[in-house]
């Protein structure tokens, strides 16, 4: 049963939208949803739509209540489809075409063909010439890679299009193009030869140690099944051997109407969608009978295995730069089921059982011992197995003790029923989740619906509305007993076979014989794993202080936003409306962000990101924070920005006061528990050794430090540096940050305004006066390095992997907001040119990526930065192409077509997000102190979508003219850039 919800869009924030687009709104834009008719003239009902009273194809053999918002149909040629109206975001239509064939459908000599076909359909088809697809979708306003994309899995291939600003003509053209791709791709030898290097580049970019580890784990965990040997990307040998005829044979076998499902969801009449499906797909006919799907195989235990503990394949995977990671699983055959209410009640009991064990494992890890982290999960994997998977990270090389701890927790769960108190705690959390799904049903985007339908088809289940999920949950809860959960747990931790893999950096850590012995060893149930019942209520927590007085309360110039200032200097912005029911966004901004740190603070920065929240507040440690959140929707995300720290959460009106208390108490009464600090320190030490395993890891470790002129606050701490950190030092760094400096709170969404302001008074208004930040701290800037030579770093991964980064400094700050938006257009032009050049020159996949970073809270440190992964010999090519494009942009402005391909996707992207409360929150954050943020909203959409060639030329000359980029290359150990340059020259590049 896959969730789906009805969405009836009500245009939010009409006044702000008018400010964003000063050219004016159309009559339809200004109307409410109740006044707008989806179709003025009723459309004739397509012949393929299922009739009134007829069971839709997706609900066959199911008693799950039908979601009436979906309309389903089936064409005479076998194509099935589902369509529905949805207006989130306004004007968008999402189309999915699913083919029931993925990597598991490949023959041994076709490995990688399903994914290769995904690429080839975009290369050339009936209505699109060679390499025209990307340009065509960009001109229609769709961003390639996000709005236009595809995915290949072991069991299906899905083509995706999220089309903005749709009218009937645009929909018709898009459906025509998409149908031509699916029905009549051009699978010539030339196209296959051109696309294979791009797929191999993608394989290389995703590959290396990570791919090698993934392959070894799959070969062990799914031994004897097709899933063990069919990595989606394929093998180099099979891809190099591909030609037009062999790929055509795979296409002809699986790309057939009866294997196709079309999902269309969006802001037009669903009958129109059905008509379009019928128009462009009903004529698709193929010869012969459909080939039966191959048998995927069942997980089987080895001969002679103990039925009570059927341990099968195990593997020790040694990777010197990888951190330790242990996986074992219970594997059962996958079988098709009837998607009934009773079946789904059982699935919810499985979820309950696993959540109980997960919480016990987390408590064990928090308490110290041998575990850094552990979790359990259940999945029906690729229609190949129904598996229960256990993952854990040992804290040290003593993996055997960690394994014993995990097995002992699970042994207790399969021996003794949970307490009713434990169950009630998990059930309360599940109730919040399902209730909130119902509350937020009108907020869900059409793209989510479209994806859910193809996902339901993939797992061979029905689709359901949130009300159905809540109904099934309530039915399950009413029946659930501790004994029933025990029985479900026993089924989860049993199977045909148990398999295990252990990844370790040390070849001397373990042998496969030792691993098997440990898995076969008897285990005693850990009775201490069960968590004692303890109820904590917000009403019993200490007050933060005396409720604060409001010294100013006034409109904030935009819509219904209100600015509030308390006597202690805390400011707040409040926007209460019902545009997004059940959703309240809360953000707290405080302090100076990265500017707050001195050089010697560097080791404590990342530890704060990992441990600051879990180190507790007031009387609440990490476990107590979990308990007090029972039955509530609360969040606690923490972020360190360039110029500000922030807490974020998405909550709901009935929990808003408690959410505000948590955030304010973290600032007003911070706690400094040792266990989270020790755990974060251990995690940082373990992670450090893996950075060198691949180019991306080296960039994670070193890029910011090198880019920002070796500023020590950006330096990733080595294990040696972490050895010297202490809890006392951690507190010394972070306590002043939490307790000093200005605070701004933003609360936007569906809540009662006066109740929220009262809660703000009791929480943030009750904080002590926090004073101001020192001018020295506020004056700190981030200077981009002016190194003229390429900075080179080395990785320990595969010899054919490298990464390259180039950057130009562009500044930052609110004063340049409008310029930054125009720079975004220039960056998009740069990105499109570089992507075309690298695909043509090197056969790169959809890398590289060029983006603008313009920080708003500080006046420096921004960049136009490009990044790509590639072969070492292509690194000099990337740098040369980037410099060439920058130079050409300073000499000749972009063409009108280039600007359209950049601005149309940008305009549509921002029109979609600009209708949400959270968008307005992000745009107005900081404006209680800096009114320029409000003024910057005017003309927002125009700044991103309207420009001139002359403006682009001037910006290119300002930021690229006479300035070579800063460059960084990450290449394999033992190689040099000079060698890479020679290899590039020898290959003719």
UniProtKB/TrEMBL annotation:
Signal peptide limits: 1-27
Keyword field: Hydrolase, Metalloprotease, Protease, Signal, Zinc
Peptidase M16 N-terminal domain mapped to chain residues: 92-231
Domain of life of the source: Bacteria
Family to which the UniProt record says this protein belongs: Belongs to the peptidase M16 family.
Peptidase M16 C-terminal domain boundaries: 246-428, 725-903
Protein name: Insulinase family protein
């Amino acid at each position: 049963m896959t969730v789906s919800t009805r969405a009836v869009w009500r245009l939010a924030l009409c006044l702000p939208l008018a400010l964003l687009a000063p050219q004016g709104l159309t009559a339809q834009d200004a109307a409410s949803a109740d006044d707008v008719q989806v179709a003025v003239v009723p459309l004739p009902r397509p012949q393929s739509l299922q009739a009134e009273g007829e069971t839709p194809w997706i609900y066959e053999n199911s008693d799950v209540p039908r979601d009436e918002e979906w309309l389903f149909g089936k064409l005479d040629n076998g194509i099935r489809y589902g369509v529905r109206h949805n207006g989130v975001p306004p004007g968008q239509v999402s189309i999915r075409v699913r083919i029931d064939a993925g990597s598991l459908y490949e023959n041994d000599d076709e490995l990688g063909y399903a994914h290769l076909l995904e690429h080839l359909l975009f290369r050339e088809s009936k209505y699109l010439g060679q390499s025209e697809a990307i340009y065509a979708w960009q001109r229609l306003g769709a961003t390639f890679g996000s709005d236009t994309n595809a995915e290949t899995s072991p069991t299906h291939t899905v083509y995706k299009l999220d089309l903005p600003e749709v009218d009937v003509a645009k929909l018709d053209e898009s459906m025509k193009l998409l149908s031509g791709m699916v029905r009549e791709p051009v699978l010539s030898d030339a196209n296959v030869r051109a696309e294979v290097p791009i797929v191999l580049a993608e394989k290389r970019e995703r590959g290396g140690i990570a791919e090698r580890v993934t392959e070894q784990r799959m070969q062990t965990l799914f031994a004897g099944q097709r899933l063990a040997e069919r990595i989606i990307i394929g093998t180099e040998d099979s891809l190099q051997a591909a030609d037009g005829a062999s790929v055509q044979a795979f296409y002809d076998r699986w790309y057939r109407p009866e294997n196709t499902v079309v999902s269309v969801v969006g802001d037009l009449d669903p009958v129109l969608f059905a008509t379009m499906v019928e128009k462009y797909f009903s004529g698709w006919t193929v010869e012969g009978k459909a080939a039966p799907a191959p048998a995927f195989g069942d997980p089987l235990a080895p001969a002679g295995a103990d039925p009570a503990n059927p341990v099968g394949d195990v593997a020790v995977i040694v990777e010197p730069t990888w951190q330790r990671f242990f996986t074992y699983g219970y594997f059962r055959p996958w079988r098709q089921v009837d998607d009934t209410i009773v079946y789904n009640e059982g699935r919810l009991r499985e979820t309950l059982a696993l959540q109980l064990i997960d919480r016990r494992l987390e408590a064990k890890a928090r308490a110290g011992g041998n575990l850094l982290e552990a979790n359990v999960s259940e999945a029906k994997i690729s229609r190949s197995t129904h598996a229960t998977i256990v993952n854990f990270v040992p804290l040290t090389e003593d993996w055997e003790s960690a394994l014993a701890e995990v097995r002992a927790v699970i042994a207790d769960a399969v021996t003794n029923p949970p307490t009713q108190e434990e169950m009630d705690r998990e059930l309360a959390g599940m109730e919040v989740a399902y209730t909130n799904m119902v509350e937020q049903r009108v907020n869900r985007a059409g793209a989510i619906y479209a994806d859910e339908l193809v996902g339901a088809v993939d797992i061979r289940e029905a689709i359901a509305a949130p009300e159905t999920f809540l109904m099934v949950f309530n039915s399950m809860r009413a029946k659930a007993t501790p004994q029933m959960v025990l029985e479900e747990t026993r089924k989860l931790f049993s199977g045909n076979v148990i398999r295990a893999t252990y990844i370790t950096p040390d070849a001397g850590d373990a042998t496969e014989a030792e691993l098997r012995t440990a898995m076969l060893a008897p285990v005693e149930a850990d009775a201490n794993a069960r968590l004692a019942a303890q109820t904590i209520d917000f009403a019993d927590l200490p007050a933060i202080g005396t409720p604060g007085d409001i010294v100013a309360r006034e409109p904030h110039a935009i819509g219904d936003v209100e600015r509030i200032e308390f006597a202690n200097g805390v400011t707040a912005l409040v926007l209460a409306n019902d545009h997004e029911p059940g959703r309240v966004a809360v953000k707290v901004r405080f302090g100076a962000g990265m500017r707050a740190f001195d050089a010697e603070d560097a080791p404590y920065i990342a530890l704060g990101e990992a441990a600051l929240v879990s180190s507790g507040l007031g009387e609440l440690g990490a476990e107590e924070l979990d308990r007090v959140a029972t039955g509530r929707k609360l969040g606690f995300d923490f972020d360190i920005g360039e110029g500000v720290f922030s807490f974020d959460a998405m909550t709901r009106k009935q929990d808003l006061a408690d959410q505000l208390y948590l955030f304010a108490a973290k600032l007003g009464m911070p706690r400094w528990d040792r266990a989270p600090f020790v755990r974060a320190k251990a995690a940082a030490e373990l992670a450090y050794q893996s950075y060198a395993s691949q180019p991306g890891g080296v960039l994670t470790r070193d890029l910011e430090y090198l880019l920002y002129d070796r500023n020590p606050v950006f330096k990733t701490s080595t294990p040696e540096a972490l050895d010297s950190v202490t809890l006392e030092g951690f507190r010394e760094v972070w306590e002043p940050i939490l307790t000093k400096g200005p605070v701004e709170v933003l609360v936007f969404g569906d809540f009662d305004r006066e109740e929220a302001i009262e809660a703000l008074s009791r929480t943030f208004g009750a904080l002590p006066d926090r004073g101001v930040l020192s001018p020295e701290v506020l004056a700190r800037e981030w200077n981009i390095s002016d190194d003229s030579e390429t900075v080179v770093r080395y990785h320990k991964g595969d010899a054919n992997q490298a990464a390259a980064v180039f950057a130009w400094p562009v500044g930052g700050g609110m004063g340049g907001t409008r310029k930054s938006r125009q720079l975004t257009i220039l960056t998009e032009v740069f990105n499109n040119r570089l992507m075309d050049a690298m695909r043509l020159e090197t056969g790169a996949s959809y890398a590289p990526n060029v983006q603008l970073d313009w920080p708003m809270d500080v006046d420096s440190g921004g960049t136009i930065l490009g990044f790509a992964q590639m072969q070492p010999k292509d690194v000099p090519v990337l740098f040369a192409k980037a410099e060439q494009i920058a130079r050409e942009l300073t000499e000749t402005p972009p063409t009108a077509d280039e600007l359209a391909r950049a601005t149309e996707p940008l305009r549509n992207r921002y029109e979609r997000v600009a209708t949400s409360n959270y968008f307005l929150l992000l745009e107005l954050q900081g404006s209680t102190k800096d009114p320029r943020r409000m003024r910057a909203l005017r003309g927002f959409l125009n700044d991103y979508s309207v420009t001139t060639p002359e403006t682009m030329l001037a910006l290119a000359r300002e930021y690229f003219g006479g300035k070579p980029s800063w460059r960084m290359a990450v290449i394999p150990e033992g190689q040099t850039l000079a060698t890479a340059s020679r290899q590039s020259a020898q290959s003719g590049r």
